Write the structure tokens for this entry.
Amino acid sequence: MEGSKTCGWAAAKKRTTALRMFVRFLIAEGKCAVGLDGAIPVLAHWRLSALPRYLQEDEVERVIASCDITSPVGKRDRAILLLLARLGLRAGDIVQLRLRDIDWQGAWLHVSGKGRRQTRLPLTHEVGRALVAYLTDGRPPTDTDVVFIRCRA
């Protein structure tokens, strides 16, 4: 058990399971008190149970600043990154974003989130300027009202 502190979860689980089975064998042979196997902890492990990894604030700022705003793709990337970083939108929310979801006069962004739940988020100047730059100088001409159009190299 002592080595379980330094090994990975899978190895620790194997060790505790083996120990529990050995104690159950001893109980069946009458060499151990009944119920002692319950004293061996069960190691639970849930997928995504650890805190998610994330970028530090300065790293996020460097990623945003690395966008080449002189190119259409750079304008698109910067607008997407700002929506992710400043408003906390999910990738799926950004993909579904339509021109009619942007309230320029009220400075609001209407998002259809999980479960078709409507959310209204404030459109900050920084995000608004990035969207305008992309829509006026970066977005290819199209008949669709989807905000972000896929660019092909």
